[in-house]
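stuck on this fold:
=====
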Amino acid sequence: MSQLIFLDVDGTVCDYEGKVPASAVQAIRATRANGHLVYLCTGRSRAEIYQELWDIGVDGLIGGNGSYVEHREEVVAHQLISAEDSRGIVDWLTARGLPFFLESNNGLFASPDFEEGAATAIRDYAAGKGNQDAASFTVRKAFPEMIFDGELYRSDLNKISFVLHDYQDFLDAKQQFPHLKAGTWGGKGEHALFGDLALDGITKATAMQKLVEHLNKSQADTVAFGDAAVDIPMFEYAARSVAMGNSGQGVKDAADWVTADATEDGLYKGFAHLELI
């Protein structure tokens, strides 16, 4: 019976420099040839799914950590931050002096101070992920298609990410916008490098459920691969789940099985273990 396979992107399909191992491409193509459906399931918005990923061949996308669901170019669901909330967040972050970028299917839009203000956080993020070129890593390398002079008052946003000067910035954002979901990324606990704001009640798991229902499939047919804490709801929903070897211990504990690192043919080995190829 065909399976619905949901794949996180960074640290799962590709390494933390955005490079996709040849074995991952081989695994995805082989499992689709066997009749299974493969979906990217990521915090990235559609604008960050670069052509290299589409060229692998997938059946659709869950983006923005669940705010956007697409099956073979058909939009199944898309839930956006309201224009009023978007303006309020932009104004609050600007007044607080927190560099930010807006995540939309139409592009990534940076605040005027983001390139300079996020430079240290981006280098720290790269170093934390084991990038050997972390000391020279730049915002433009991390986000090659980011728009630096775009309109910031928008009505097409999936989520908003911002630099944390300290952990209190996250706590204050959570208090300032209690009806939204506040999160952190780029680090662990109070050492998180970025905060983000998105619609509440949306996860990768809720999006998976929407897609399963849209396709008249069963939850029993779902498989999930991931490497980060944001992937744990995906593991909890999926009938079978696999953590990458480069995952933290909490993520590994939440999965049914642990494969090798993304850079050590982890995706291919995971697919083989589940007899998808």
Notes: The two ends are 13 Å apart (CA to CA). The longest helix spans residues 83-96. The chain is about 35% helix and 20% strand. Residues 33 and 85 are 44 Å apart (CA to CA).
